[in-house]
Amino acid sequence: MVEKYGQDQQGIVNSELQKSRLQQENRLQQESLKLRNDSARVFKQLLEANRQLTDHPQWLDSIYHHHLYKPFLITQPGKAPLEIVEYLRKSVLHGLDTNYFYLNAIGPLVREMKQQELGSPALKYREQLKLEMLMASALLKYSEAMQYGMIRPDSLDKNYFITTQAPDRSKIMTVFDTPDLLAFLDSIQPSSAAYLALQKALKTGKGTINRNKEDAAMTIKLNMERLRWKNQPDAQKYVWVNIPDFTLNVIEKGRSTLEMKVCVGEGRTDTDTGTKETPQLNSMIYSVQVNPIWNIPASIARKEISKYANNDPYYLSNNDIDVYKAGKRISSPERIDWANADISQFTFKQRPGEQNSLGKIKFIFNNNSSVYLHDTPARSAFKKKGRAISHGCVRVEKPMELALALFGPGKTFDQIKRAMERSYPRAKYIGLPAKVPVYLTYITAWVDDQHILQIRNDIYGLDDLLYKEMKAREIIAE
Questions:
Q1: 94 catalytic per annotation
Q2: Angle between the 57-66 and 2-49 helix axes, to the nearest 10 degrees?
Q3: Engineering a disulfide at 284: which of 57, 352, 400, 435 sits with its beta carbon 3.0 to 4.6 angstroms away?
Q4: Cα(152)–Cα(446) distance, rounded to whole angstroms?
């Protein structure tokens, strides 16, 4: 009886102890949950307060939501934070200001954190979170910069129409999901031959005939940003026009098979808004017009043709220009008082022939700027060094060679050649058997095949616009 009583008492004690342990565990769990909730709340507050650190605050919020609003970069084992700092420091090799990636703020905090291992006081919790957010924002910026560049080109230039990939969230955010961060950072380094050549030229710090070392370095940095934009051709064959270099190249399998001079649109002045500039664009050459008719644009008719006709009544007939009103050709345009006429009521067309401003052939591709490549009777212009003289179209030095490069030898090219040589020319459209991509681009620095740095004048002021934007955002290294 006594023995059973003792067993019952022991059972009660054990039950009370178990209950006490459960209560204690529950209390600890609640305290831990409260601490986690408080930490998450503080982290969210800091994220919200520091939204300006990144252009994509919602992206950072999503990644930390996935990590339950806990630090995960600064808690990586080994030397990961220090390695990230060292990697960001190499951004100068891309012509970028390291402080764009918050290195001035990150560096000291990382060093303090690492000194904890030597007995120094630990970073305060809010400082840890600040370091975490700075590193995450820096990596997000770096991932985007290396894969897509930092400036959207169409935001700078209203005449920019080259198809350019917009930043892809999933590709940029991979920086937070990769099992090997440094390997991922290695993988996104720009690797084109043109980029690496400019990077080497920047490192060696040489000037050129027309630029000192400092100016050359800045031009290199601006063009490295252009090469980070996702807009490069991937076709085996394409036509490439570099506007400030006044050149055209036919590229086949990565090599130039034809090169020639070109004339491009006039640059802007203090009173001009750049309406004559050749736009940056890409399209597909699908046809040519042999012995073309020039449908004179209304702006040229208003600003130039009507004034010439007013000064010389026979200017129009002497230059093979027909005048139309309501679709009907006017037989005696010299009788019109062009000084007082409403030019918008008339259209002007220049007939095929030796005087036609488009020469013997134009190369046609779809675009919203009404520009094309074409021949010209003004051959002396190709002797000039600066050839920004057109109304926006691109005049080509070797039209027959370009036609051969596009069509190849055979009956069609022979037909084009005969038509261009006719004494009594007639306009005729001839389609290409296969469309050929064309790119009108703006590159002011590159390294040529002889490994010589080439710098060209910024004829449209686009280097200046890009510099001012990168400078304002503290992107470019001075």
A1: no
A2: 170
A3: 435
A4: 21
Q: Is residue 455 a contact partner of residue 198, using CB atoms and an 8 Å limit?
A: no
- Strands (DSSP E) along 233-319, which ranges? 237-242, 247-252, 255-265, 280-290, 294-296
Q: Which helix (H) or strand (E) holds 14?
A: helix 2-49
The tokens describing 372, both together, are: 């094309």
Structure tokens at 64: 């930390």
CA–CA separation, 84 and 181 (whole Å)? 9
In this structure, what DSSP letter does residue 285 have?
E
Give the number of residues written for the chain.
478
Higher-pLDDT residue of 130, 372: 372
Which residue out of 67, 374, 391, 451 is catalytically annotated?
374
Q: What is the token pair recorded at 413? A: 């090219």
Q: Which residues pair with 385 in a beta bridge?
A: none
What is the spatial distance between Cα 233 and Cα 437, in angstroms, rounded to a whole number? 8
Radius of gyration of the chain (CA): 34
Query: Locate tokens 């059973």: which residue?
Result: 4
Instruction: Give CA angle at 358 (355, 360), nearest 5°.
Output: 80
Tens digits of residue pLDDT in 360-388: 999 999 999 999 999 999 999 999 999 99
**What is the three-class DSSP state of 338?**
coil
For residue 463, what are its two tokens? 């280097």
Tokens 């050149």 belong to residue: 247
Question: Which member of 94, 263, 391, 393 is catalytic?
Answer: 393
pTM above 0.85, yes or no: yes
Give the CB-side neighbour count of residue 459, counting CA atoms within 13 A: 25
Q: How far apart are CA 371 and CA 264, in angstroms?
A: 10
Sheet holding 321-325, edge to edge: 294-296, 346-350, 321-325, 328-329
User: Which residue, among 276, 346, 274, 343, has the nearest Cα to 307 in the 3D structure?
Assistant: 343
Q: Copy the structure tokens of residue 41.
A: 């709340």
Q: What are phi and psi of 272, to 5 degrees?
A: -115, 140
Helix 57-66 to helix 125-148 angle (10° resolution) is: 120
